[in-house]
Specification:
Blueprint (H helix, E strand, L loop, with lengths): L1 H17 L4 H4 L11 E2 L12 E13 L4 E12 H4 L19 E7 L2 E8 L19 E3 L1 E2 L3 H4 L1 E7 L5 E8 L6 E4 L11 E4 L19 E11 L34 E4 L2 E2 L4 E2 L6 E12 L5 E4 L1 E5 L4 E6 L3 H7 L3 H12 L7 E5 L8 E2 L4 E4 L12 H8 L7 E3 L5 H20 L1 H25 L21 H18 L1 H14 L3 E3 L1 H28 L14 H13 L18 H15 L24 H10 L13 H11 L7 H13 L6 H10 L3 H12 L2 E4 L2 E4 L1 H15 L5 H10 L11
Parallel strand pairs: 1-7, 2-12, 19-20, 20-22, 23-24
Antiparallel strand pairs: 2-3, 3-9, 4-8, 5-9, 6-8, 10-11, 11-17, 12-16, 13-17, 14-16, 15-16, 18-19, 21-22, 25-26
Helix pairs in contact: 6-7, 6-8, 7-8, 8-9, 8-10, 9-10, 9-15, 10-11, 14-15, 15-17, 17-19, 18-20, 19-20, 19-21
The structure holds ligand BES and zinc ion.
Length: about 775
């Protein structure tokens, strides 16, 4: 510590005295470290993982709801790259060395946090969690990087003496930490306790843990977590007496909130029952993740929630009053895990649990190993939205076991996952059900392509080229739906049995490793050629018997003919046509044909809204018997199109008719509500606005927020029976609602909305 402070002071003084002309050299003899040289961002990270690899983190975390901070002491196990690569030390010059001390420099990602000290390994007393007397401080400092600091933070530069393979970092997050959301009791279901959750994907792990924040680096971890109360800083052991109420308002509540009220989960196996430790009225939650995982799967949640088992290795965590509903909704979870295991190989992570978060969770789900985090908006009361669980579960293979090496390869995570998800759904609920989900997915994809092909056609390639753009910009229907349909095309080409062998081979070959689009293509080529060979042999054999039985009706093309078709998906815009080999796969839903007939009936019952004539379409002609959530969604999505085939909007009268019959404004199903609110805004149907407003204040799931706010920005109002643009008015309303709702949104959602509404991005968290 001392040493470092001295060093930094001298350095700063040097710069000040020498003036700007030679600033680059002010501390140049000791540079380029400690803020003098600019580190290069590669794949959204400053980590020099070619020189060092984190292999394990042993963490002590103190979660403080009053300060809204996590204070951490982490011992990192490092592997020097020469060991990994079987090189002799010094045989390849490391790139980052302090020429004065000769020490290697480790670069980690960090943002929104204060580093309180860095020490040589072994400095932490593992029993008490406190720093040993005489612990050796290491030199460190926040460097300068060539990327946007608000987004990527700064490289944390640490001098690691050559003999060291372990270091300890002591740090504290700031309340603005982008990954973390600190919720007040009012923002939870039970309304009794505060709640904390993290969302690390894609590059927010660095806002609560200093680490190598790129998906190509994997490590194991162990953790001890405690909840501490009171506003003052605590040591690693969390030693304190006379703990106040955990949210600092003990005199205002009857029953003070105590550390023992809280449960903790992490993306790791929880050891035993939470046990008490030496500190009175406190308890330690212990975790172990023995399988190596990438940084974006680091996760923590702390709140007052219970647990219910759902089968031999499945269970659900939810706030106490929500737990029975959640357990009912997720009744099929064990079946899903078993079905997925049968198709794609053994489940690798021990238990599969789902934690239901408060509604501000910015995503539908997040596949944190051992415990998926999920939005409560999937609890519809009829089990109709559980495909989201199948999706997050599917990531146990595609993503968590086999990980995209860079965010440019994101489709390898999400496209594979949507494909596997739909196979799980098909196995459990049948083909008709899975087909509805596929058609809904195609509808979303078409909508995305509608604007993307005009505005950013290159973003519609499966393989992305993000450069320094926020990796979250790759989170579009391209990775998910175009990716899924590409794999579905391959399935239809090779036949399901053969394609399953390919997939299983993929999951086995890259287990606990990473994959790139190029590796995938090389494997596909090998597989394709093998299939061509096999089908040639098979057809010789079968034709000798007088019949030809192939994988599919048409013979497989040679790879050289097929490859361009594959590359059109991977590196080309939009979607291929349906006819050709390698084209868009066959896709239809019998259930939805029925919905389409009903929509046609409705639209034909009236006249399109145009000057002079407006006989409203009549909601009573629609036969909705047997409709499920998916039928309703399909119906609402068809209503964008008028009977004349043109996209149009329903009149306010027609909306009122639909609402009177089907009570959409009051629906408790968030998926249906979202579509209805968008339609309501497009139609200037004001009776839905209050419910829409309440929804935006309560729910923080970005997938719902974006289309509603976007619709407000494109607002039209009815004047003299005609729809006229009222964009300024819409923007004003959107901005007003947003500013009211923002304190309740997670930084990820707030950031996207600030961009949409052209508001300044503020603060270290990007909020
Ligand atoms: N891993 C994603 C969520 C994610 C992706 C977060 C990229 C941050 C950056 C998760 O598996 C996911 O896809 N969630 C979807 C679920 C849906 C496709 C069923 C969501 O949140 O909507
Ligand atoms: Zn996903």
């Amino acid at each position: 510590m001392e040493k470092l402070h001295g060093f930094r002071r001298v350095c700063l003084l040097g710069v000040m005295l020498l003036g700007t002309a030679i600033q680059g050299w002010g501390c140049g003899v000791r540079s380029p470290y400690f803020g003098e040289g600019s580190q290069l961002l590669t794949n959204h990270s400053y980590a020099n993982d070619g020189e060092f690899l984190i292999t394990h983190m042993d963490m002590r975390l103190a979660v403080n709801f009053v300060d809204k901070t996590i204070e951490g002491w982490i011992e990192y196990s490092l592997m020097h790259a020469y060991l990994r690569d079987n090189r002799k030390p010094g045989s390849v010059p490391p790139y980052h060395v302090n020429p004065i001390t000769g020490n290697h420099v480790l670069l980690l990602d960090h943002r929104d946090m204060d580093i309180l000290g860095v020490y040589a390994g072994g400095s932490l007393d593992k029993k008490t969690g406190v720093l040993k007397k005489g612990a050796k401080g290491l030199l460190y400092g926040a460097g300068v990087g060539d990327g946007d600091t608000l987004l990527y933070g700064k490289p944390l530069e640490i001098e690691v003496p050559r003999s060291q393979s372990k270091i300890v970092i002591h740090y504290k997050t700031r309340p603005s930490a982008g990954a973390l959301q600190w919720l007040s009791p009012a923002q939870t279901y039970d309304q009794t306790h505060p709640f904390l959750f993290s969302q690390s994907q894609s590059i927010l792990a660095r806002t609560w843990i200093p680490l190598q924040d790129k998906p190509s680096v994997r490590f194991t971890y162990s953790a001890q977590v405690r909840v501490v109360c009171g506003a003052t800083s605590v040591g690693a052991a969390g030693v304190r007496t006379g703990a106040a109420d955990c949210i600092g308002v003990s005199d205002l509540v009857d029953a003070p909130i105590k550390p023992t009220d809280f449960n903790v989960v992490m993306s790791a196996v929880k050891l035993g029952n939470p046990e008490g430790d030496i500190v009175t009225d406190n308890k330690v939650h212990r975790f172990e993740q023995k399988k190596p995982i990438p940084s974006y799967l680091m996760a923590i949640a702390v709140g007052s929630f219970g647990y219910q088992s759902l089968g031999k290795n499945t269970g659900v965590y939810a706030e106490h009053k929500l737990l029975p509903k959640a357990a009912w909704e997720f009744a099929d979870l064990q079946k899903m895990v078993d079905a997925a295991g049968e198709m794609f190989g053994e489940y690798a992570w021990g238990d599969y649990n789902v934690l239901v978060l408060p509604p501000s969770f910015p995503f539908g789900g997040m596949e944190n190993p051992v415990v998926t985090f999920a939005t409560p908006t999937i609890i519809a009361g009829d089990r109709s939205l559980v495909s989201l669980l199948a999706h997050e579960l599917a990531h146990s293979w595609s993503g968590n076991l086999v990980t995209n090496r860079t965010w440019d390869d994101f489709w390898l995570n999400e496209g594979f996952t949507v494909y596997v998800e739909s196979r799980i759904m098909e196995k459990l609920y049948g083909q008709n059900y899975a087909d509805m989900l596929r058609v809904l997915g195609k509808g979303e994809l078409d909508k995305t392509l509608g604007w993307m092909l005009k505005e950013a056609p290159e973003d519609s390639h499966l393989r992305l080229n993000l450069g320094k753009r926020d990796p979250d910009e790759g989170l579009t229907d391209i990775a998910y739906e175009k990716g899924r349909f590409f794999l579905m095309m391959l399935e239809q080409l090779y036949g399901r049995t053969a394609f399953d062998q390919f997939l299983n081979g993929h999951f086995t070959k890259y287990a606990f490793g990473t994959v790139t689009t190029d590796l995938f293509l090389a494997d596909l080529k090998a597989f394709h050629e093998q299939q061509v060979g096999a089908s040639a042999m098979e057809s010789t054999a079968t034709s000798a018997q007088g019949s030809v039985v192939g994988h599919t009706s048409s013979p497989l093309p040679a790879w050289r003919d097929f490859e361009p078709r594959v590359l059109a998906w991977i590196d080309g815009p939009g979607l291929p046509g349906v006819q050709a080999v390698g084209g868009f796969p066959k896709l239809e839903s019998q259930e939805f044909s029925r919905v389409e007939q009903q929509v046609a009936k409705f639209l034909l019952s009236g006249e399109p809204l145009h000057p002079g004539s407006s006989v409203p379409c009549n909601a009573s002609v629609i036969d909705t018997s047997g409709f499920t959530t998916h039928h309703w969604l399909h119906m609402l999505r068809q209503l964008h199109t008028r009977s004349d085939g043109l996209p149009g909007r329903l009149s306010r009268e027609e909306m009122a008719g639909l609402d009177a019959r089907f009570h959409f404004t009051q629906t408790q199903n968030a998926e249906i509500a979202c579509d209805w609110f968008v339609l309501s805004i497009q139609s200037d149907y004001r009776p839905a606005y209050q419910a829409m407003h309440d929804f935006l204040l309560r729910v923080g799931r970005r997938k719902f927020l974006m289309p509603i706010y976007e619709a407000l920005l494109a607002q039209h109002v009815v004047i003299d029976g005609k729809y006229v643009p009222a964009f300024a008015q819409g923007k004003e309303m959107a901005t007003e609602i947003f500013l009211q709702a923002e304190p309740g949104y997670h930084s990820v959602a707030a950031r996207s909305l600030r961009e949409l509404l052209a508001l300044a991005l503020t603060g270290g968290s990007g909020r």
